[in-house]
Specification:
Layout lengths: L1 E2 L2 E5 L14 H13 L5 H5 L19 H7 E2 L5 E2 L1 H11 L7 E3 L15 E9 L2 E12 L4 H19 L2 E13 L4
Helix pairs in contact: 1-3, 1-5
């Protein structure tokens, strides 16, 4: 494995879809939409022919408080929930120069309830010259299997967020904790 690697993609130059292996683009799109809906049950994914989360779901299709819950309904100690995506959209519009445009899926208080701990655990948006960039920190990255999927997913998310907030897409910066290849 390699620790601390980084890749950069300028989204103005095109969409960074890996072409050296077959990617199921429909799965990438529906998984991202599933996250953005705040869902943690695989029902929506299955209805759209996406099975990538099935092996970790319980008999009811539940995965515990994974990405969608953390992004859209992060629980607070007083019983409320924070919609991190809505907050970031609002803060990008209100104060684009802020350094606080961050969404985290790494909720230490709920890790034990998650079917899988978040691999892509934190992302931050940055605005410069009318362009919206996104940096993802991925603590654990399967370079062959997951990374091509993650690149496309977060590039798409960056484009979506740019559209919603009125900016042009900038860069997608992918920062890895442990980047590894499994030998079979």
């Amino acid at each position: 494995s390699i620790f601390g690697h980084q890749m950069r993609f300028d989204l103005a130059e095109g969409f960074p879809l890996v072409t050296t292996k077959k990617l199921h683009v429909k799965s990438i799109i529906h998984e991202l939409l599933w996250f953005l809906q705040g869902s943690t049950n695989v029902r929506y994914l299955r209805e759209h022919g996406v099975t990538i989360w099935d092996e970790w779901a319980d008999e009811n299709g539940d995965l515990g408080p994974v990405y969608g819950r953390q992004w859209r309904a992060w629980p607070t100690p007083d019983g409320r929930h924070i919609d991190q995506i809505a907050r970031v959209v609002e803060s990008l519009k209100r104060d684009p120069d802020s350094r606080r445009h961050i969404v985290s899926a790494w909720n230490v208080g709920e890790l034990d309830k998650m079917a899988l701990s978040p691999c892509h655990c934190l992302f931050q948006f940055y605005v410069a010259d009318g362009r919206l960039s996104c940096q993802l920190y991925q603590r654990s990255a399967d370079v062959f299997l997951g990374v091509p999927f993650n690149i496309a997913s977060y590039a798409l998310l960056t484009q979506m967020m740019a559209r919603v907030t009125g900016f042009e897409p900038g860069e997608f910066v992918h920062t890895f904790g442990d980047a590894h290849l499994y030998l079979t």
